[in-house]
Amino acid sequence: MKKLAVVTGANRGLGLSLVNEFSEGGWSVIALTRSLEPDAPAAPSDVVTVRHDVRSNDASELLDGLDGRPVDLLINNAAQGAAHGELGSIPADGVLNAVDVNAAGPLRLVQFLLPNLLAAPDPIVINMTSRLGSLAAQASGTFADLSTSYAYKISKAAQNMLTIALAQDLQGRVRCWAVHPGKLATDMGQADASKDPRAAAAQLRELVDSGDSTSPRFCSLGEPDLPW
After folding, report:
1. What pLDDT, in 10s, does the model give residues 12-63?
2. Buried b / exposed e across 45-61, counting CB within 10 Å, b at 16+?
3. 8 Å CB contact between 71 and 3
4. Integer Cα distance of 92 and 80 in angstroms
5. CA–CA gap between residue 171 and residue 152 (Å, rounded)
6. CA triplet 175, 25, 202: central angle to 5 degrees?
7. Cβ(28)–Cβ(3) under 8 Å?
8. Model pTM?
């Protein structure tokens, strides 16, 4: 039986590249998207597209699509950013929405899929994060010259803490990694970003195939691991 991956935020950018990479690599994939595009090209036979918003507490469509199968890999890729602004103009609601998508969303998915993950022989949860969520790097001023929103930095730091908490709670049962994909040339990417999301997807599959048992881990694809 093929291994099964569940990928959130799968309709474009890195998420779509991940779906294609794992499908082409012989995996079955459940691709979660917030909305279904009526004119989207037909998915390969081993890819099932399911409508699901990671902010929702209703996972009925996802669980129906799974039909009880073990989940070998969960990639929490769906993300929410916000425009950079001066301190006095930062809406708290924007921060809360980013935390809901970037931190609470992955938590919900793990809760929904925990029985399926535990039914797999060597399951992995990957939270697609950012180097900008590193408290150590931010505190040292490494990224002080970047105009990054409070919402994005706070939510990605929260996502990283979630990764650590999950790894400790699921130690010996599910590996949990935070993965920074690089500066991707996508709609959410920085102005100087040039990395093709297809290259990042290939690097991620190589990482998954490596069998590395470290958990938790804060990876930077193609680079040394990052400080928490």
Report:
1. 999 999 999 999 999 999 999 998 765 666 667 799 999 999 999 999 999 9
2. eebbbbebbbeeeebee
3. no
4. 14
5. 28
6. 70
7. yes
8. 0.93
